[in-house]
Every structure is written in structure tokens, then in C-alpha cells.
Amino acid sequence: MNLNTQTYESLSSIFSRDFSSLLLLPKIEKLINKQEPTLEDVLGLCSHNESLLIKLTRRAGFGSNEDEFAKEILFKKGLSFLKSLAIRTMNQEIFFLPLKLEGMTEYKIKRRAVVLARFIKHFYEILGVKPDDAYLCGLFYNFTYVSFEKLIADNLMSVCDFEEVKDVCIDLTSTALKEIGFDTVITSFIEDSNKELHSTKFPFGHALSRIGNTLLINSEDTLSSNIGRGSGVDRQLLDATGLTTREIVNVLKDLTRNYKGGLGRQ
Length: 266
Description:
Elements: H1 5-18, H2 20-32, H3 39-44, H4 50-59, H5 66-77, H6 79-91, H7 106-122, H8 124-127, H9 131-139, H10 143-153, H11 162-180, H12 184-191, H13 203-219, H14 235-241, H15 245-257
Helix pairs in contact: 1-11, 2-6, 7-9, 7-13, 7-15, 9-12, 10-11, 11-12, 13-14
């Protein structure tokens, strides 16, 4: 499949058009790294997007009082709270599927993404990355499917089987998120998601992601308590983690059982 520069730029534009909360996270990260953020900085984060600001203030319990919300963030709860709030808001927005092809539903893709995000975050210390970065690596692991449907819906890609163009969608998605400003830890994780395990930058993380993702897919038409039941774990992937099947499955079971639609604190 031949893709030109316009296709790469178009996916970034689609994300900017449809997912306002996706654009907010890199801005919050920059503000967290700023030495002395001001009230104007916090208000300026989403002053360009009133609907996004309303979503954030309501989710934090401030109605539409933007000034009180900004003061609470800056002087009491902190920017990390705002980041968590933005992630929860993003979870409700970025898994909208315009076409719902191949039997995929928004519930399936979001549940898979959020549970996998929490699963990878559980092992962030072994991965050697920040907790939020580990979470986002897991959250975006299946996001390439959303890109696939968006590209088709905008007539930038013909209807086809996702697996046939998965590598293309991975490349487009990682590039678009890089343009938006996400950290290279996250974008490179997406970029490596379909590569041979030991050619990736985080073999441990990718082994975990592939095991967790497969178990979640296998359980989607059954009760959550059936995670791992009747599903063998790939031995090569398991060996790469250094964990036991029970250690992995038990964590995934707990996270699946406590799934609340991506609304809970991350």
C-alpha cells in the first residue's frame, strides 16, 4: 500500500479534530515539567476548547466554574490530578468507532485498552518507566484499530482486513501521536508492537502486552472471571517475562473484575 505525506498528516488532523482530550495530555506534561506554573497556564491548557473544559470541570465536581477549578488544581490537588482527570476524559472519547467493522464494538476496544493499560502499569517498575507512561503504552496498544476505522471513514484507506494493513496503521498511529507531542517511550512502544519480540526496545513490556491482549481477546465473549481458563499462554512470551502464568493471570483477573468503563482513577 502506497501512502503519501498527506496520509500521515491527515491522521494527525483527524485526531486533532475528533479527540480534543488526546491533545491535552502532552500539554499537561509540559506544564508539569515547568518550574513555576501559573493560574493562567492552567486555564490556558484548554481555553481554546470550551467543551473540553466543561468535561474536565464537571468530572472534577466543579460544575462550570473554571477559575475555581484552576485554583484547586494549582494550589491543592496538583497537576498530576489534572493529568489523571485528562486520561479518564480521554478514555471516554478516543475509542469511538465510526464503522464498527469486523465485529468490533466500542465497549470491546475500550475495555481491552483500559484493562491492558492498568495491567502494564502494574509492572511499571520492572519496565523502568513512569507509571503514567506504562499506562499509556498499554492504552494505545490497540489504538491502531481506531486509526484503521478513522482512515477508512475519511476515505484515506479502502475497506480491507485490519491484519493486512496493521503494520501501516501502527506506523501512522505512532507518527501521529509523535506529532501531537507524546513521549518517545509511548510512541516507540506503539511502533514496536508488531515487531519480532527481541527486536523491540522493551521485550518484557511487549511480551506482557501480547500475553495480556490475547487473554483479554479470548475472554471477550465470556465472563471476566474466565480470564486464562482454557487459554494457553505462549511459552516464548512467558519466558521473556520471567513470570509464571498464575502471576500474570491473577493480576489480569483482578483488573478485569474491577473494570468500571475507564472512569476510575488510573
